[in-house]
Amino acid sequence: MSSIKQVQVTFDCAEPERLARFWCEVLGYVVPPPPEGFASWADYDRTLPPERQGAGFVCRDPEGKVVKNRVHLDVRVGTGLVGAERVAALEAECARLVALGAERVRLLVADEYDESCLLMQDVEGNEFCLD
Question: Do 39 and 85 share a domain, yes or no?
Fold first, then answer.
């Protein structure tokens, strides 16, 4: 089995370039160079069929491995559940993921605003939540 080296997140949006440039700023990402043979992404875009023009845009992490999480995923396993039933569902999924190499960090118990969730780390130490 090969390991995943990159992940692509695709947004369904009205203005792909505007949204991508926003996330570049938020995450410190960069717009990659246009495909070989094109001076700009706009030049490349004009070569696409009319229905595909302006339909996509890209930003990427300028670094390799980084210490700070660039994305935090919330894995929804307790939707609609509350109290002990919710915690049981979170713990069951946690056990499954620990067997895959994840690490349980801590249970964040429900308060007056939020239901319980479980903070975890993937196999490279990136945090995510089961909620």
Answer: no
User: Could you read off the pLDDT of 72-86 as tens digits, one per residue?
Assistant: 788 888 889 999 999
The two three-digit tokens of residue 114, written as one number: 């939020």
Handedness of CA 60, 62, 64, 70 (dihedral sign): negative
Residue pair 116/74 in contact (Cβ under 8 Å)? The answer is no
Minimal CA–CA distance to 58: which of 105, 17, 98? 17
Residue with the two structure tokens 């067997």:
99
- Encoding tokens for residue 127? 């945090």
Boundary-marking domain end, from 43, 69, 95: 69
Dist CA 97 CA 112 (whole Å): 28
Rounded mean pLDDT, 91-104: 93
pLDDT of residue 66: 52
Q: For the residues of 30-74, what is the DSSP string, one character each? A: BPPPPPTT-SSHHHHHHTS-GGGTTS----B-SSSS-SS-S--EE
Indicate whether 16 and 65 sit together in one domain: yes
pTM of the shown model: 0.50
Domain span at residue 49 reads 8-69
